[in-house]
Amino acid sequence: MLRTGKEHLERLRDGRVVYIGKERVDDVTTHPAFRHAAATAARIYDMKADPANRETMAFEEDGESYSAYYILAKSRDDLRQRSRTHRKIAEATHGFFGRSPDHVASFVTGMCTKREFLDTEGGKFSDNLRGYYEHMRQNDIYAAYAVLPPQAARDPAFYQQQNLPVPTLQLVREEDDGVVISGMKMLATGAVIADEIWIGNVIPLAPDQTKQAITCAIPCNAPGLSLWSRKPMEVNARTEFDSPLSWKLDETDAMVMCEEVKVPWERVFCLDDPTQSSRIYTQTPSHCYGNHQSNVRFHTKLRLFVGLASKITQSTGANKIPAVAETLGRLAAMEAGLSGMIAGQIEAAEEWPEGHVTFNRRMMYAALNWCTESHSGIIDIVRELCGGGIFQMPADVSVMHDDELRRQFENYWQTPQMDALARMKLFRLAWDLVGSEFAGRHQQYEKFYAGASFIIRGHSFRETPWDELEAIVDDLMAAYDVPAAEGA
Ligand SMILES: Cc1cc2nc3c(=O)[nH]c(=O)nc-3n(C[C@H](O)[C@H](O)[C@H](O)COP(=O)(O)OP(=O)(O)OC[C@H]3O[C@@H](n4cnc5c(N)ncnc54)[C@H](O)[C@@H]3O)c2cc1C
């Protein structure tokens, strides 16, 4: 089924508990902190449901249409369709919704291509995963995830000394019809405007953390669940003109707090097995499917960066200066390089798991590493190109509503290359991209959304065929030996 935007907004009015500080939010679709982000998610659904986009963004099975990010890829063409769909969704938010509806859905779909991996001596969870996948695609579910313990949980002794439970989310007990969980999990981006939350552990647990190994899915309105929002940025955007990105693209981040939340057995995917709880992402195509989406999203954002950098330099006339053109050339090379890294993941796709194909894992991790390492540097380049132009603009666009101020503004702020209002519009966008609180959140997001950089490099290390690379060295050295002694 393909959900419409209106249907999505209706689903969000489900009694979920969301806090902004001590304020409890009644309806996330109308609250000034979240309404535009919710509407953005709704627009993604409308775009997907639009018959004009069906060929790219949907696939058919047994006469029913489903979102294309539920394709269990069996060919490069399937991967291409997945990738094109990610691209269209990313373009709808210019890459600022990291956890758009296709992100966690891709994690689940990738895992489903090798779902037998979830079956262990501790439990047969592959049927649960298949059931959840069917549920997601049938109802066009928007899931967020919280797959990290909170930083507060790193010193269990501190809590034990005070007779307090360690704050991280864990299994409290098993019951006939499911399990009960309590505790906190970080950091569910998008959960405020999504339907469900996948709970798990993407980073390995210690062997004794069996109760924390619980992996499951819960609806955002589950009794006992509350979402604690970080400071929302949409409320600070007074007009779209002045804060065009914060206005409608703050996808939200929230801590997930569970107190005695009941999870039916069919939504449990891992239990009491710390090793298994993180391996289900990397030993199946889950992590690869999900982070291919991240690569495509970042590339979409990078295209905006490069286009903006070029227009900024045009607005000041700096584009005529060879050194500035060189800087633009460097940015453009970065953009083209990432484009190649994404295309390569499909061209060099892996025939894995059996009967399926997956984006090339090493190239996906290389792109992920590159994006994580490069984002701050790219921002800095664009900041330098902006100069002080951003702060030469009036405080806000209301200046246009006063005839005399408007006359002065239009006369004095124009440049030979651009009229005053167009410059102001451009620099407002630039600031929301590189300097506003929204931009700052994105800088943090791009550093951490897939784990700290040493974690990402760890994935790259794991997937590298070291034998193959070391054999090159061995072969080279095998071609020569200790030379005969001189004069011998
Ligand atoms: C905006 C944003 C959105 C997010 N969205 C989500 C989400 O949707 N779902 C989700 O589950 N999580 C999400 N996260 C959480 C994210 O996965 C974590 O922030 C990330 O895994 C890093 O964990 P941490 O914040 O606890 O940092 P830490 O692990 O404390 O690391 C902080 C820094 O400490 C140093 N450090 C710590 N340990 C080591 C080590 N062993 N070796 C070397 N250096 C080390 C590094 O410099 C590292 O950068 C989000 C985070 C942000 C910032």
Can you characterise this structure?
The termini are far apart. The longest helix is centred in the middle third of the chain and has 31 residues, at about 285-315. The protein folds into two domains: about 5-280, Butyryl-CoA Dehydrogenase, subunit A, domain 2, CATH 2.40.110; about 285-475, Butyryl-CoA Dehydrogenase, subunit A, domain 3 (Up-down Bundle). Strand 5 (about 120) and strand 6 (about 125) form a beta hairpin. The chain is about 50% helix and about 15% strand. The mean pLDDT is about 95. The strands form four sheets. A six-stranded mixed sheet has the order 2-1-12-13-9-8, with no helix packed on it. Helix 10 packs parallel to helix 12 (about 360-385). With about 500 residues, it is α+β, with helices and mostly antiparallel strands. It is globular, with a radius of gyration of 25 Å. The structure holds flavin-adenine dinucleotide (FAD). Flavin-adenine dinucleotide binds near residues 146, 188 and 448.
Total count of strands: 14
**Order of strands in the sheet with most strands:** 2-1-12-13-9-8
Uncertain runs are none
Could you tell me the radius of gyration in angstroms?
25 Å
> What spatial form do the alpha-carbon principal axes imply?
globular
CATH class of the largest domain: Mainly Beta
Domain module count: 2
- Overall helicity: 40-55%
Largest sheet: 6 strands, mixed
Mean pLDDT: 97
Structural class comes to alpha+beta
CATH structural architecture of the largest domain: Beta Barrel
For the termini, the CA-CA separation is 83 Å
CATH superfamily of the largest domain: Butyryl-CoA Dehydrogenase, subunit A, domain 2
Strand content: 5-15%
Name every ligand kind in the structure: flavin-adenine dinucleotide
Number of helices: 17
CATH topology of the largest domain: the name is Butyryl-CoA Dehydrogenase, subunit A, domain 2
